[in-house]
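Help!! Second protein's tokens look totally different from the first
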Amino acid sequence: MFLSSKKYLEQFRSLIESSGDLSIAVAFWGEGAQTLIAKAWKGRSLRIICNLGSGGTNPQVIRELIELAKEKPGIRILTLDNLHAKVAISETAAIVGSANLSVNGLGFEGVECAGWHEAGMLVHEQSQLIQMQEWFEHLWQQGAAVSEDRLIKAHIQWVKNRTSRPFSVNKLLDAPSNTLKNRNIYIAIYRLKASDQAKAEAVQAEKDARRSDLPNVRNTKLDFFEDWPDDSEEPLPIDAPIIAMRYGPTKRLTSVSAWVRIPQLDRTFVSTERASTVPLTMTGQLKRVSGMTFSKEDGPVLAKRLKPWVDELYLGAEPGTARCIPLDNFIEWEADQIG
């Protein structure tokens, strides 16, 4: 029986619900898969083979399935790095198809791929089921235990895949919130204006930049952060886009723009006002953030969206407090407000 997208999920859930002994060889697992298993499976034995090595599986989902196995002892999980199949086999039926469990190999999750067209076949022929069980047994013998070390390595690869997955829009402000998660984008919020001495040091840094052999340094509009050391609790990241803004005394968000650090231009100076050494962190302006445009006109629009979150962040904070926070934190906060 041929299964189109809607029927695919219905039949997959039905297969899980009706199976006493179920074997699933699905390469990539994403957010929501653990909930499906927890709610639908009530059988005796559930064997899962996933692929933790390619970066397409969210390791947190596997962690939650391992925790579920403590409540339901019939669940066993192995990993196989060269698995790319999408097969589920019970005593009486099997599904072979294109769909991973709420995720595809590019690292999309849940609603990110809700519009994708999937297809599969529902199999009842006993001779074919026997062949498929033999195939699964062969893979099961090749599988490896899911260790903590494997989960840590899988997390690193997962994050790398998530930051590089393509967008369906060209403009940052048009991107759905869920597609901005895990992009390694940061929000930097500062409160104080720069000192005259810091501005003078920045002028010298700009002169050095104009003499650079690197075009992306020589031709970039520069700015800086004063007294934001790399050993602070929330340091400014290197090699990641930083959306910076000032949260002034009137609690308005201004000067919202995107930057990336240029560490070779960083310097320190001895502040005459403080009689101490102060770092100057140099940045170059970005016109695109994770491949999407972010213009001067976009700044105030984003500021309006961020304002309630920033107000909450700064409740009771010291006047000069600066924050550098992953954009993911805001996305999660915003989702909580909507939910």
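Here's the second one for comparison:
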Amino acid sequence: MNDQLEVSVYEKMVSSPLAPMTLRIGVAGHRELPETELLRLRAEIDAVYKAIGQTVQDIAQEEVAKHIYAYETAIIRIISSLAEGADRLCVDPELTVFEGIKLELAGILPFLKEDFEQDFVPEKSVIDRQNGTVTEFNEILNRIGYGRPDAQVIELDGDTANCDEAYNNCSRLLVEHSDILIAVYDGDDTEDKGTAAAVRTAKQSGIPVIHISTEPDTPIRCHCSIRFGQPPCAADYTEDLLAKELRRVLLFTEVLDQDESDEKAKESRKQKILDRFKQYQSEENLHFTTDHPDFDNTGPIELLKRYPDKKAESFDFLKQIIATPKGIQKELSRFKERDTETVASGTPDNIAHHFTRPSLNRYFAAYLRADRLANYYASIHRSTFVLIYLFGALALIAAVSALVISKYWGEWGAIIFVMTELGLLAAIFGYYWKDHREKYHDRWLEYRCLAEFLRPMRYLSLLGRPYAISNFRDTEEYLNREVIGHSAVGRSWLYIYTETINRWSGFNACRLDADCKDGISDFIKTSWLNGQIHYHTYNDAAMRVLGRNLGRLSFRIFFATAFIVIVKLALLSLGVFNHSEIAHGFIAILFAWLAAVLPMLATTAYAIRNHAEFDISAQRSLTMRAALICQRKRLKTAQTSRQMAATLNEIATVTIRETTDWLEIYEVKESELG
């Protein structure tokens, strides 16, 4: 990787996964502003900005902020559509001065730059009919860094023949990228277009709105967020009210400070959420490599050690023994070739230039960290329950053997096997205790959930779209349950962390012309959809082979046991007819031992199969495979970036919901002493 900035994103993610505090301010308003009100409007915008800047600095010093954000300068990102009037007034260099804050300017244009410029030529300009404002427009773009890969500018593919729809789509996307909206307009919401469309979308989405009126003698109003079950509220603007709304946004107060009848329980819940951040930050089994990111699964963040020790390889070793590559390939042959061999070997050339975008690298770095750690703890936890079952079977065998061997070796022989049984029981308890103490099970579930939250975001970012985590679950639900499961308190950290990454990552140069959209579509189908279809196809085959072979093993042991019991019965029958030396000899005792041991082995095979849910996992992959194939077809027919984004949002929601539902099944599959 030659880009030092790109490298630093991954290096930082290895050492600390926390994002800097980022507040995204969307600005919108009328193109034509009353000359008589301009000084007042400038003063009110300046006052609101100063209050926001001071509040962000104050919030950054709070203890909660130090737990959930990186120790870096806070970021304020102002996002505008850069039209004449209020859009440009709100990004005026004299107004956008924030002490102790890193300022980022961003633009979301309804059309490609050259098409949008036509709105500002002299004959169309509402500001300067003589010279137009194209030069001013380009000067602002230059401030943003237009033309560089890291420039935060989205050029949408709006239809110039349908300007109202293009402007509305632009306004709605601006709101999607905002945490708070400043609207400079007359307050007329009767028509769902222009600034009114942005304000209406913000209110419906729970984005707080600061309304600076263009009408004379009208106070600033604040429309508070309705997220997390809060009722609609509109009041005269005050700095205290602004601070309250910003605390809700930046400190996630509704999640961390839920109303509890017991104050002690409230603080305990909050502390558990913050402890999860501390735990995730303290993970050390990662290192930075020189691998170039392919934005699928290969990248410069890898595990230092794939397994902590040989014991953690047990589950993977068991899979290799039971499900051979030959058996899996045979199972794969039942699928159609076009559905299993569609993963391209390379990356489409026409999308390669998108790979250097900081936003894409930020999302991918966050994903890699979560994915690598999820795989690591999955191996440890799965190996733990396999070893518990195997050692449990061996302990029972040792117990039976102690009874049998005492006949030949006496008490000392029995003592050896009893001590062996005791050692196995101690090992079982040790595995169980360490699994629970180190929270391997919880870490696996939570990090896998986090990785799947982050996976679709990098693909949507290519289209300049964010993925709102509230698409997966309404914010009100987080007040009544955890992100996954119902018993483990503290998992709401996943919601908070994902939101902080989403805000920080933002977007970068995104010019949605025909070539770009074709390239993005090809890349998404090749990397994400086909990759996931391939994964679920293979996983279905592997899980079916594992489940079937373990089932067959239990079945064969059952019939072997039945045969042993019949032989044992025959030997005992001989004793009835005065052949006691046969009925009570070594052969008879051996068969009696086998009759006791074989059911233990069969039960162990069944227990491992049942705990691992191989068959259900196969069915789950089959269902997801079918859904992804269907969505891939839909993506092929999408013509506009909005249609493409709608399909990707649906795919993201389906895959995230399916993953969390599946992980909730595994929540009750903890390792047990039994």
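Reply: Different proteins will give different token patterns, so don't panic. Confidence is low (pLDDT under 50) at residues 340-350.
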